[in-house]
Design brief:
This protein has about 425 residues and is mostly helical. It contains 22 helices and no strands.
Length: about 425
Protein backbone atom coordinates (compact mmCIF):
# COMPACT_ATOMS: atom_id res chain seq x y z
CA UNK A 1 0.00 0.00 0.00
CA UNK A 2 2.83 2.40 0.89
CA UNK A 3 4.45 1.70 -2.48
CA UNK A 4 1.23 2.68 -4.27
CA UNK A 5 0.96 5.90 -2.24
CA UNK A 6 4.58 6.87 -2.97
CA UNK A 7 4.21 6.02 -6.66
CA UNK A 8 0.95 7.98 -6.87
CA UNK A 9 2.60 11.03 -5.31
CA UNK A 10 5.48 10.80 -7.80
CA UNK A 11 3.12 10.63 -10.79
CA UNK A 12 1.00 13.47 -9.43
CA UNK A 13 4.04 15.72 -8.93
CA UNK A 14 5.33 14.90 -12.42
CA UNK A 15 1.99 15.87 -13.99
CA UNK A 16 1.96 19.06 -11.90
CA UNK A 17 5.26 20.02 -13.52
CA UNK A 18 7.69 19.40 -10.67
CA UNK A 19 11.27 18.55 -11.62
CA UNK A 20 11.65 14.76 -12.02
CA UNK A 21 14.61 14.33 -9.61
CA UNK A 22 12.71 16.10 -6.83
CA UNK A 23 9.58 14.01 -7.42
CA UNK A 24 11.52 10.80 -6.83
CA UNK A 25 13.16 12.24 -3.74
CA UNK A 26 9.71 13.23 -2.44
CA UNK A 27 8.41 9.70 -3.12
CA UNK A 28 11.42 8.08 -1.42
CA UNK A 29 11.13 10.36 1.62
CA UNK A 30 7.38 9.79 1.94
CA UNK A 31 7.85 6.01 1.72
CA UNK A 32 10.50 6.03 4.48
CA UNK A 33 8.42 8.30 6.73
CA UNK A 34 5.35 6.07 6.46
CA UNK A 35 7.37 2.87 6.95
CA UNK A 36 9.58 4.37 9.66
CA UNK A 37 12.73 3.53 7.68
CA UNK A 38 16.06 5.35 8.01
CA UNK A 39 17.17 7.85 5.37
CA UNK A 40 20.81 8.44 6.38
CA UNK A 41 22.02 6.30 3.45
CA UNK A 42 20.44 8.54 0.77
CA UNK A 43 23.59 10.64 0.06
CA UNK A 44 25.95 7.67 -0.23
CA UNK A 45 23.54 5.75 -2.49
CA UNK A 46 23.14 8.77 -4.76
CA UNK A 47 26.90 9.23 -4.97
CA UNK A 48 27.81 5.60 -5.61
CA UNK A 49 25.07 5.27 -8.25
CA UNK A 50 27.27 7.40 -10.52
CA UNK A 51 30.54 5.66 -9.64
CA UNK A 52 30.46 3.27 -12.57
CA UNK A 53 33.08 2.69 -15.23
CA UNK A 54 30.45 1.66 -17.77
CA UNK A 55 28.66 4.98 -17.25
CA UNK A 56 31.57 6.70 -19.00
CA UNK A 57 30.30 5.14 -22.23
CA UNK A 58 27.07 7.13 -22.07
CA UNK A 59 28.42 10.69 -22.63
CA UNK A 60 30.91 9.36 -25.17
CA UNK A 61 28.24 7.67 -27.31
CA UNK A 62 25.97 10.72 -27.01
CA UNK A 63 28.77 13.00 -28.23
CA UNK A 64 29.72 10.57 -31.02
CA UNK A 65 26.12 10.46 -32.24
CA UNK A 66 25.94 14.26 -32.34
CA UNK A 67 29.24 14.51 -34.21
CA UNK A 68 28.08 12.04 -36.86
CA UNK A 69 24.68 13.74 -37.08
CA UNK A 70 26.37 17.02 -38.03
CA UNK A 71 29.13 15.57 -40.17
CA UNK A 72 27.08 15.18 -43.35
CA UNK A 73 26.66 11.43 -43.02
CA UNK A 74 22.87 11.75 -42.67
CA UNK A 75 22.37 13.15 -46.17
CA UNK A 76 24.47 10.33 -47.65
CA UNK A 77 22.40 7.72 -45.84
CA UNK A 78 19.18 9.32 -47.08
CA UNK A 79 20.46 9.23 -50.68
CA UNK A 80 21.45 5.58 -50.29
CA UNK A 81 18.07 4.63 -48.83
CA UNK A 82 16.19 6.35 -51.66
CA UNK A 83 18.23 4.62 -54.35
CA UNK A 84 17.92 1.20 -52.73
CA UNK A 85 14.11 1.46 -52.65
CA UNK A 86 13.54 3.60 -55.72
CA UNK A 87 11.74 0.86 -57.72
CA UNK A 88 9.70 -0.51 -54.81
CA UNK A 89 6.05 0.52 -54.52
CA UNK A 90 5.84 3.01 -51.70
CA UNK A 91 9.63 2.93 -51.76
CA UNK A 92 10.28 6.59 -51.02
CA UNK A 93 8.39 6.40 -47.71
CA UNK A 94 10.02 3.02 -47.04
CA UNK A 95 13.32 4.87 -46.77
CA UNK A 96 12.12 6.23 -43.40
CA UNK A 97 12.59 2.99 -41.39
CA UNK A 98 15.58 1.89 -43.48
CA UNK A 99 17.50 5.14 -42.99
CA UNK A 100 16.33 5.26 -39.34
CA UNK A 101 18.01 1.88 -38.86
CA UNK A 102 21.18 3.11 -40.61
CA UNK A 103 21.28 6.30 -38.57
CA UNK A 104 20.34 4.52 -35.35
CA UNK A 105 23.53 2.50 -35.72
CA UNK A 106 25.45 5.78 -35.62
CA UNK A 107 23.57 7.95 -33.14
CA UNK A 108 21.97 5.41 -30.77
CA UNK A 109 19.22 7.96 -30.11
CA UNK A 110 15.55 7.89 -31.05
CA UNK A 111 15.14 11.67 -30.82
CA UNK A 112 18.21 12.33 -32.97
CA UNK A 113 16.90 9.83 -35.52
CA UNK A 114 13.46 11.51 -35.60
CA UNK A 115 15.00 14.96 -35.97
CA UNK A 116 17.26 13.86 -38.82
CA UNK A 117 14.51 12.03 -40.71
CA UNK A 118 12.13 15.01 -40.51
CA UNK A 119 14.69 17.62 -41.55
CA UNK A 120 16.64 15.63 -44.16
CA UNK A 121 14.03 13.30 -45.68
CA UNK A 122 10.74 15.05 -44.85
CA UNK A 123 10.97 17.87 -47.43
CA UNK A 124 11.72 15.40 -50.25
CA UNK A 125 8.68 13.33 -49.32
CA UNK A 126 6.39 16.36 -49.03
CA UNK A 127 7.45 17.66 -52.43
CA UNK A 128 6.70 14.34 -54.13
CA UNK A 129 3.18 13.98 -52.74
CA UNK A 130 3.47 12.29 -49.36
CA UNK A 131 1.01 13.49 -46.73
CA UNK A 132 2.66 15.32 -43.83
CA UNK A 133 0.55 13.43 -41.29
CA UNK A 134 1.76 10.08 -42.58
CA UNK A 135 5.40 11.16 -42.69
CA UNK A 136 5.27 12.46 -39.12
CA UNK A 137 3.62 9.24 -37.88
CA UNK A 138 5.99 6.96 -39.80
CA UNK A 139 9.05 8.85 -38.51
CA UNK A 140 7.77 8.65 -34.92
CA UNK A 141 7.15 4.90 -35.26
CA UNK A 142 10.57 4.31 -36.88
CA UNK A 143 12.64 6.53 -34.58
CA UNK A 144 12.76 3.87 -31.81
CA UNK A 145 14.92 1.80 -34.15
CA UNK A 146 17.58 4.13 -32.74
CA UNK A 147 16.92 2.45 -29.36
CA UNK A 148 17.49 -1.01 -30.83
CA UNK A 149 20.26 -0.82 -33.43
CA UNK A 150 23.61 -1.02 -31.59
CA UNK A 151 25.36 0.82 -30.14
CA UNK A 152 22.52 2.35 -28.10
CA UNK A 153 22.66 4.46 -24.96
CA UNK A 154 19.74 2.62 -23.34
CA UNK A 155 21.86 -0.52 -23.15
CA UNK A 156 24.44 1.38 -21.08
CA UNK A 157 21.75 2.61 -18.66
CA UNK A 158 20.11 -0.81 -18.37
CA UNK A 159 23.42 -2.54 -17.66
CA UNK A 160 23.94 -0.29 -14.64
CA UNK A 161 20.90 -1.66 -12.81
CA UNK A 162 20.81 -5.21 -14.14
CA UNK A 163 24.55 -6.08 -14.21
CA UNK A 164 24.00 -7.39 -17.72
CA UNK A 165 26.88 -7.14 -20.21
CA UNK A 166 26.71 -4.06 -22.44
CA UNK A 167 28.26 -6.01 -25.30
CA UNK A 168 25.57 -8.71 -25.03
CA UNK A 169 22.82 -6.09 -24.86
CA UNK A 170 24.16 -4.40 -28.00
CA UNK A 171 23.96 -7.56 -30.09
CA UNK A 172 20.73 -8.87 -28.49
CA UNK A 173 18.64 -6.15 -30.12
CA UNK A 174 19.75 -6.82 -33.70
CA UNK A 175 17.19 -9.52 -34.62
CA UNK A 176 14.23 -7.65 -33.00
CA UNK A 177 15.29 -4.50 -34.89
CA UNK A 178 15.36 -6.39 -38.20
CA UNK A 179 11.91 -7.86 -37.47
CA UNK A 180 10.51 -4.42 -36.64
CA UNK A 181 12.00 -2.98 -39.82
CA UNK A 182 10.49 -5.80 -41.91
CA UNK A 183 7.03 -5.36 -40.35
CA UNK A 184 7.13 -1.62 -41.02
CA UNK A 185 8.08 -2.13 -44.67
CA UNK A 186 5.16 -4.55 -45.12
CA UNK A 187 2.69 -2.20 -43.42
CA UNK A 188 3.90 0.74 -45.52
CA UNK A 189 3.44 -1.34 -48.69
CA UNK A 190 -0.19 -2.06 -47.71
CA UNK A 191 -1.34 1.41 -46.57
CA UNK A 192 0.79 3.86 -48.54
CA UNK A 193 -1.80 4.52 -51.30
CA UNK A 194 -4.01 6.34 -48.77
CA UNK A 195 -1.28 8.84 -48.01
CA UNK A 196 0.56 9.22 -51.31
CA UNK A 197 -0.84 11.70 -53.85
CA UNK A 198 1.50 12.15 -56.86
CA UNK A 199 1.41 15.64 -58.25
CA UNK A 200 0.50 17.25 -54.92
CA UNK A 201 3.28 19.25 -53.26
CA UNK A 202 2.84 19.24 -49.49
CA UNK A 203 5.81 21.55 -49.00
CA UNK A 204 3.64 24.64 -49.32
CA UNK A 205 4.01 27.68 -51.53
CA UNK A 206 6.75 29.32 -49.47
CA UNK A 207 8.86 26.22 -48.98
CA UNK A 208 12.48 26.33 -50.04
CA UNK A 209 13.54 24.28 -53.04
CA UNK A 210 14.46 20.72 -52.11
CA UNK A 211 17.83 19.54 -53.30
CA UNK A 212 17.61 15.86 -54.20
CA UNK A 213 21.05 14.57 -55.11
CA UNK A 214 19.91 10.96 -55.44
CA UNK A 215 18.16 11.31 -58.81
CA UNK A 216 21.30 11.17 -60.96
CA UNK A 217 23.23 8.82 -58.69
CA UNK A 218 23.82 5.11 -59.12
CA UNK A 219 23.59 2.62 -56.29
CA UNK A 220 27.35 2.04 -56.35
CA UNK A 221 28.03 5.79 -56.10
CA UNK A 222 25.66 6.07 -53.14
CA UNK A 223 27.32 3.09 -51.42
CA UNK A 224 30.77 4.64 -51.90
CA UNK A 225 29.56 7.95 -50.44
CA UNK A 226 28.11 6.12 -47.41
CA UNK A 227 30.92 3.64 -46.88
CA UNK A 228 32.60 5.62 -44.10
CA UNK A 229 29.29 5.78 -42.24
CA UNK A 230 28.94 1.98 -42.25
CA UNK A 231 32.53 1.50 -41.16
CA UNK A 232 31.84 3.03 -37.75
CA UNK A 233 29.49 0.33 -36.36
CA UNK A 234 31.73 -2.32 -37.95
CA UNK A 235 34.79 -0.93 -36.16
CA UNK A 236 32.99 -0.39 -32.87
CA UNK A 237 31.13 -3.69 -32.66
CA UNK A 238 34.00 -5.63 -34.21
CA UNK A 239 36.39 -4.20 -31.65
CA UNK A 240 34.08 -4.99 -28.72
CA UNK A 241 33.33 -8.58 -29.69
CA UNK A 242 36.90 -9.36 -30.71
CA UNK A 243 38.09 -8.16 -27.31
CA UNK A 244 40.24 -5.34 -28.67
CA UNK A 245 38.50 -2.74 -26.51
CA UNK A 246 35.62 -2.44 -24.05
CA UNK A 247 32.24 -0.80 -24.67
CA UNK A 248 33.41 2.30 -22.79
CA UNK A 249 36.57 2.55 -24.86
CA UNK A 250 34.39 2.06 -27.94
CA UNK A 251 32.56 5.28 -27.02
CA UNK A 252 35.84 7.20 -27.05
CA UNK A 253 36.80 5.66 -30.40
CA UNK A 254 33.36 6.65 -31.76
CA UNK A 255 34.03 10.28 -30.80
CA UNK A 256 37.44 10.21 -32.44
CA UNK A 257 35.96 8.63 -35.57
CA UNK A 258 33.20 11.26 -35.73
CA UNK A 259 35.74 14.08 -35.38
CA UNK A 260 38.00 12.54 -38.02
CA UNK A 261 35.21 12.08 -40.56
CA UNK A 262 33.49 15.40 -39.93
CA UNK A 263 36.57 17.63 -39.72
CA UNK A 264 39.08 16.07 -42.13
CA UNK A 265 37.19 13.81 -44.57
CA UNK A 266 33.83 15.50 -45.23
CA UNK A 267 35.14 18.84 -43.86
CA UNK A 268 31.63 19.79 -42.77
CA UNK A 269 32.47 20.25 -39.08
CA UNK A 270 34.01 23.55 -38.04
CA UNK A 271 35.53 24.42 -34.67
CA UNK A 272 32.33 26.14 -33.54
CA UNK A 273 30.30 23.07 -34.53
CA UNK A 274 32.55 20.78 -32.48
CA UNK A 275 32.19 23.08 -29.49
CA UNK A 276 28.40 23.11 -29.92
CA UNK A 277 28.34 19.29 -30.10
CA UNK A 278 30.23 18.87 -26.84
CA UNK A 279 28.22 21.66 -25.18
CA UNK A 280 24.90 20.03 -26.14
CA UNK A 281 26.20 16.59 -25.15
CA UNK A 282 27.31 17.93 -21.77
CA UNK A 283 23.83 19.40 -21.25
CA UNK A 284 22.17 16.07 -22.13
CA UNK A 285 24.49 14.13 -19.83
CA UNK A 286 24.05 16.63 -17.00
CA UNK A 287 20.28 16.26 -17.26
CA UNK A 288 20.57 12.49 -17.03
CA UNK A 289 23.08 12.67 -14.18
CA UNK A 290 20.59 14.71 -12.18
CA UNK A 291 18.00 11.98 -12.63
CA UNK A 292 20.21 8.96 -11.88
CA UNK A 293 20.96 9.49 -8.15
CA UNK A 294 17.34 10.19 -7.20
CA UNK A 295 15.89 7.31 -9.19
CA UNK A 296 18.56 5.01 -7.72
CA UNK A 297 17.57 6.10 -4.23
CA UNK A 298 13.91 5.38 -4.97
CA UNK A 299 14.78 1.98 -6.45
CA UNK A 300 16.95 1.16 -3.42
CA UNK A 301 14.12 2.13 -1.06
CA UNK A 302 11.77 -0.17 -2.93
CA UNK A 303 14.23 -3.08 -3.10
CA UNK A 304 15.35 -2.93 0.54
CA UNK A 305 11.73 -2.86 1.68
CA UNK A 306 10.77 -5.93 -0.32
CA UNK A 307 8.63 -4.23 -2.96
CA UNK A 308 9.89 -6.47 -5.83
CA UNK A 309 8.84 -9.54 -3.84
CA UNK A 310 5.45 -7.94 -3.17
CA UNK A 311 5.02 -7.27 -6.89
CA UNK A 312 6.03 -10.86 -7.72
CA UNK A 313 3.55 -12.24 -5.18
CA UNK A 314 0.79 -9.97 -6.49
CA UNK A 315 1.35 -10.95 -10.12
CA UNK A 316 1.62 -14.67 -9.31
CA UNK A 317 -1.60 -14.39 -7.27
CA UNK A 318 -3.36 -13.40 -10.50
CA UNK A 319 -1.91 -16.35 -12.37
CA UNK A 320 0.94 -18.81 -12.07
CA UNK A 321 1.00 -19.44 -15.82
CA UNK A 322 4.34 -18.13 -17.19
CA UNK A 323 2.67 -17.01 -20.42
CA UNK A 324 0.10 -14.92 -18.54
CA UNK A 325 2.77 -13.42 -16.28
CA UNK A 326 4.88 -12.54 -19.34
CA UNK A 327 1.88 -10.79 -20.88
CA UNK A 328 1.25 -8.88 -17.64
CA UNK A 329 4.87 -7.71 -17.55
CA UNK A 330 4.63 -6.53 -21.17
CA UNK A 331 1.39 -4.65 -20.45
CA UNK A 332 2.88 -2.98 -17.35
CA UNK A 333 5.95 -1.86 -19.32
CA UNK A 334 3.86 -0.53 -22.23
CA UNK A 335 1.61 1.49 -19.92
CA UNK A 336 4.61 2.79 -17.96
CA UNK A 337 6.38 3.68 -21.22
CA UNK A 338 3.43 5.84 -22.27
CA UNK A 339 3.74 7.96 -19.12
CA UNK A 340 7.40 7.90 -18.09
CA UNK A 341 10.72 8.95 -19.58
CA UNK A 342 12.93 6.16 -20.96
CA UNK A 343 15.61 6.63 -18.29
CA UNK A 344 13.05 6.42 -15.48
CA UNK A 345 11.56 3.27 -16.99
CA UNK A 346 15.00 1.67 -17.21
CA UNK A 347 16.25 2.77 -13.79
CA UNK A 348 13.09 2.22 -11.72
CA UNK A 349 11.11 -0.57 -13.34
CA UNK A 350 14.07 -2.84 -14.07
CA UNK A 351 14.92 -3.59 -10.41
CA UNK A 352 11.21 -3.80 -9.54
CA UNK A 353 10.14 -6.21 -12.28
CA UNK A 354 13.32 -8.16 -13.02
CA UNK A 355 12.82 -10.55 -10.05
CA UNK A 356 9.33 -11.38 -11.36
CA UNK A 357 10.73 -11.97 -14.84
CA UNK A 358 13.50 -14.16 -13.43
CA UNK A 359 10.97 -16.24 -11.49
CA UNK A 360 9.41 -17.44 -14.77
CA UNK A 361 12.72 -17.99 -16.56
CA UNK A 362 13.16 -14.69 -18.40
CA UNK A 363 16.85 -13.77 -18.38
CA UNK A 364 18.06 -10.25 -17.69
CA UNK A 365 19.22 -10.09 -21.31
CA UNK A 366 15.79 -10.97 -22.73
CA UNK A 367 14.07 -8.67 -20.24
CA UNK A 368 16.32 -5.82 -21.38
CA UNK A 369 15.16 -6.22 -24.98
CA UNK A 370 11.53 -6.31 -23.79
CA UNK A 371 12.11 -3.05 -21.91
CA UNK A 372 13.77 -1.44 -24.95
CA UNK A 373 10.76 -2.34 -27.10
CA UNK A 374 8.41 -0.89 -24.47
CA UNK A 375 10.51 2.29 -24.37
CA UNK A 376 10.22 2.55 -28.16
CA UNK A 377 6.43 2.11 -28.11
CA UNK A 378 6.15 4.68 -25.32
CA UNK A 379 8.24 7.17 -27.30
CA UNK A 380 5.57 7.12 -30.04
CA UNK A 381 2.48 6.87 -27.81
CA UNK A 382 0.96 9.88 -25.94
CA UNK A 383 0.98 11.38 -23.39
CA UNK A 384 4.82 11.19 -23.06
CA UNK A 385 5.52 10.51 -26.75
CA UNK A 386 8.68 12.57 -27.22
CA UNK A 387 9.49 11.16 -30.69
CA UNK A 388 5.91 11.78 -31.84
CA UNK A 389 5.87 15.33 -30.45
CA UNK A 390 9.17 16.12 -32.16
CA UNK A 391 8.23 14.66 -35.55
CA UNK A 392 4.80 16.34 -35.50
CA UNK A 393 6.38 19.71 -34.72
CA UNK A 394 9.06 19.38 -37.41
CA UNK A 395 6.51 18.20 -40.01
CA UNK A 396 4.18 21.04 -39.00
CA UNK A 397 1.14 18.92 -38.12
CA UNK A 398 -0.76 18.44 -34.87
CA UNK A 399 -0.25 15.34 -32.75
CA UNK A 400 -3.95 14.46 -33.12
CA UNK A 401 -3.55 14.34 -36.91
CA UNK A 402 -0.85 11.65 -36.65
CA UNK A 403 -2.93 9.16 -34.63
CA UNK A 404 -4.74 7.55 -37.56
CA UNK A 405 -1.63 6.85 -39.71
CA UNK A 406 0.35 5.84 -36.60
CA UNK A 407 -2.00 3.11 -35.36
CA UNK A 408 -1.18 0.44 -38.01
CA UNK A 409 2.53 0.67 -37.20
CA UNK A 410 1.95 0.30 -33.46
CA UNK A 411 -0.78 -2.37 -33.61
CA UNK A 412 0.64 -4.53 -36.40
CA UNK A 413 4.34 -3.72 -36.13
CA UNK A 414 5.69 -2.69 -32.73
CA UNK A 415 3.27 -4.68 -30.51
CA UNK A 416 3.74 -8.00 -32.38
CA UNK A 417 7.52 -7.64 -32.16
CA UNK A 418 7.25 -6.90 -28.44
CA UNK A 419 5.19 -10.06 -27.95
CA UNK A 420 7.64 -12.08 -30.05
CA UNK A 421 10.66 -11.01 -28.00
CA UNK A 422 8.64 -11.67 -24.83
CA UNK A 423 7.72 -15.23 -25.75
CA UNK A 424 10.64 -16.31 -27.95
CA UNK A 425 13.90 -15.99 -25.95
CA UNK A 426 16.04 -17.05 -28.92
CA UNK A 427 15.29 -13.74 -30.69
CA UNK A 428 17.27 -11.96 -27.95
CA UNK A 429 19.70 -14.61 -26.78
CA UNK A 430 20.80 -16.48 -29.89
CA UNK A 431 23.28 -13.93 -31.28
CA UNK A 432 24.91 -13.21 -27.88
CA UNK A 433 25.29 -16.95 -27.30
CA UNK A 434 27.32 -17.25 -30.49
CA UNK A 435 29.80 -14.67 -29.23
CA UNK A 436 30.26 -16.03 -25.70
Amino acid sequence: MTFLIASGVILLLIFLGMSIPYTFMAGSTLFCIIEGAKMNWFPSTGYYSMESYSMLAMPLFIAAGSLLERSGIASRLVDLGEIMLRKVKGGLAATIPVVSAFFGALSGSGLATASTMCTMLGPRLFEKGWDRRYVAAFVAASAPLGFLIPPNVNAVVYSMVSECSIASLFIATVIPAILLLAFYLIINRIVYTKWYHPGVNYNGENAEAVIDTSEAMTLWQAVKRSLLAFLMPVIILGGIYSGVFTATEAGAISCFYGLLIGCFVYKSLKAKDVFAVFRDSAYSVATMMMIFPFTFIFSRVMVTNGVPQIITEFITSISTNPYVITLLLAVILIIAGCFLDANILLLVFTPLLLPTAASIGISSLQFGVIVFMAVGIGAATPPMAMCLFLSARLCRVSVNETVRPLLPFLLFGALPVLLLVSYVPALSEWLPSLLN
